[in-house]
Amino acid sequence: MAPDFTKCIVGALAAAGLSTTDPLLVGFSGGRDSVALTAALLLAGFSNVTLIHLDHALRPESAAEAEWVASFAQTRNLDVVIDRVAVAELAAQMGAGIEETARHARHAFFATVARERACSSVLLAHHANDQIETLVFRLLRGAGPGGLSAMAPKSERHEERRSYSLLRPMLGIWRAEIDAFVKKQGLPFLEDPSNALPDFTRNRIRHSLLAEMERCMRRPVHEALWRTAEVLRAEADFVKTAELLLGPVPEQLDVFELRQLPLALLRRRVARWLSERGVSDIGFDLVESVSHLALRIAPAKVNLPKGAHARRKAGRIFFEGPPLLLCLILLSLRLLF
Amino acid sequence: MAPDFTKCIVGALAAAGLSTTDPLLVGFSGGRDSVALTAALLLAGFSNVTLIHLDHALRPESAAEAEWVASFAQTRNLDVVIDRVAVAELAAQMGAGIEETARHARHAFFATVARERACSSVLLAHHANDQIETLVFRLLRGAGPGGLSAMAPKSERHEERRSYSLLRPMLGIWRAEIDAFVKKQGLPFLEDPSNALPDFTRNRIRHSLLAEMERCMRRPVHEALWRTAEVLRAEADFVKTAELLLGPVPEQLDVFELRQLPLALLRRRVARWLSERGVSDIGFDLVESVSHLALRIAPAKVNLPKGAHARRKAGRIFFEGPPLLLCLILLSLRLLF
Lengths: 337, 337
Known about the structure:
The structure is a homodimer. Chain A is of the alpha/beta class. The first copy, chain A, folds into 2 domains: 2-212, 3-Layer(aba) Sandwich (Rossmann fold), CATH 3.40.50; 247-327, 2-Layer Sandwich (Uridine Diphospho-n-acetylenolpyruvylglucosamine Reductase, domain 3). In chain A, 54% of the residues lie in helices and 14% in strands. In chain A, the strands form 2 sheets. Chain A has a 6-stranded mixed β-sheet, with helices on both faces. In chain A, strands 7-10-9-8 form a 4-stranded antiparallel β-sheet. In chain A, β9 (309-313) and β10 (316-320) form a beta hairpin. In chain A, α1 (2-15) packs across α2 (32-43), α6 packs across α10 (222-245) and α12 (263-276) packs across α13 (284-295). Chain A binds chain B through residues 139-145, 148, 201, 204-205, 208-209, 212-213, 215-218, 221, 223-225, 227-228, 230-232, 234-239, 241-242, 262-265, 267, 284-285, and chain B through 139-145, 148, 201, 204-205, 208-209, 212-213, 215-218, 221, 223-225, 227-228, 230-232, 234-239, 241-242, 262-265, 267, 284-285.
C-alpha cells in the first residue's frame, strides 16, 4: 500500500511538472489527509516543503490545533506558516456566509504565502471520496457545467494580483487507502477537524446518501461516481476552452451570432457576458432566460439581480444597470449597517 | 393546467418542426403517460395520429392490455398498429438480456411501422421524472459522456435501413402535471404497466433514492437534477459534434495526433475507434487504457474484450483481432448452444 500511495502522489505531481527539488506549500489542517500527504511527500524525497495553516477561529480548540501543527512541523524539521483570521466576525462585517468567508480567507492566505515565498504551487489533500462528495453535492444543488466538473488536479488561481497553481495530487486516492497508509506509518493526526465545520449537508452526503445509493444499485457506486467526475471535467474543460476561443464577449450580444452557436456555447457565452457585467448569482434559470432572449421572440426583457436587466432591441441584447435611485438606496443601506 | 400542458407539448413539437397536419406515430403502452400525450395531441388539433403498441408478452395480462389499446383507439377513432413479440423466448435464443431484447424489439417495431406508414416521427411519452431517473441511473452505473446526457427531446434513429425521429415532447412535464391533466380530462388508462417491467433498480431510484436525496439536501432536488440533464445534454452534444468534425477515425490511430487533442476529444475519438472496430462493452476503463497508450510510454499493449487487443508500435495504435483459434472456438460454441 505505502509505496503505491506515495507513487500515486509523485505521479500526480510529475504530471503537474514538479520535481522533488521544487518548493511546495502544503495546505495543512493537521487532519488525517493533510498529514498523509505531507508524510508521502517526505517519503518521496521532496526536500522543500512548507506547511501552511490558517486558524479560522471557528471552534474553541482551533488555537490548540494551530499549536499542534507548529509542533508537528518542528518534529519533522519542516518550515511552517500559521495565520489566524476571525472568520465569524469577518463574515458578520461583510454580510456574507461563514463558509464563503472561510474560503475567501483561506485563498487570500494561500496567495499571500505563495507571494512571500515566491512559490507557485499550493497542495491540498482532497481525495477521491471528497471528489465524489463534491460531485453529488453540486449535482443536487443544480450546479452549472463548471460546477459539475468537480475538483481539478491542477487549477490556476489568481488572488491578490498573483497567480499560483492549486494542486490536488490525492484525487485518485480513496479514504480507506489514506487510513491504511496513516496506520502503517504510525502517523499522528488531529481528529478530522473538517468534519466539525458547519457543512452539514456534505456530512449527510458522506454518511447516508452514498450508502443509500449503494443499497439502491446493489453494488458499490464510488468508482462510477469518480469516473463521472473525471469524464465531466474533461468535457467541461473542452467546452469552456471552445467558448474562450470565440474571443472576448462584446458589450452588446448580437442575437444573430448567438443563434449560430451550439447550445452549450451559447449558454456559456451568456454566462460569461453576465459575469463580466458584474451580475451575481448566475444560475441556470438566469442564463436560460437571457439565452431565450436570443432564441425566441418574446419577452424582450429579462430581470437580473439587484434591479438590473437585459433587453433585446434591434437584434442586440443590452445590459441595463439598476436605476440610479436603487443604486443610492443599496449603497446607503450598506453604509448604514 | 390543461392548456399549459397541451401548449408545452405543441411547443416541443413545433421546435421539432412538426405542425398539426403532419402524420405522427405515438408509442402507446396504454399507461397514464402515453394516454395523456395522445389526449393532448388530439386537443391540440393533431389530425393524423396513429397509436403503435408492441405486446412484449412478458406478463400474462399483456394480451388483454393490447386489446384495451385497440378499443381505446377505436373509441377515439384513431388508427392503431399492434404487434406481438415473445421477448423472453427471443432473449433466450439470442443469449441476451430481457431488457436489451425488449428495447431492440421495440425499436425494430417502430422502424417497421415508420417505414410502412411513410412516417418520419415516433413520439414517446417520457416525462421530466423519467428524465431525472435516467440521469441518476446512468450516473450511478458510471455511464460515459453520451449516457450522462440522458434523453434527448429529438434523436435520429437508424434502424433497418430507415431513419426516423424519436421525439419526446413531454420531457419538460412532471408526473404530477400529467396526473392532474389525466384527472381533469377524466381519461381512462392501464395501471402503469411499465412499473411492472423488470427494471427494479429504476423503481428503487424512483421510490426511495430521490426521497433520500431530498432529505439529505433538505429541499427539493427534482428541478436541480432536471437542469443538470439539460446542461449535460447540450455540453455532450457539442463535444460529440466537435469529435465528428475531426473526420473519420483512421484504421490506425496516430499517437502524435491524439496527444494534440483536448482530453475530452481524445477519449471520444478512442471510443469511436473501438466501436468502429466492433469492440463491445466500451466502458470508461477500456477507453482510458487505450488513451493511455497514446499519452504514456508503457504498457504498449491493452487487452480488449473477446481476445482482441490494441497495440502501440512506431507511433501508431493498431487494432489486433482475436487469434484465429479463439475465433473458431467462440464460433463453434455459438453454433453448438
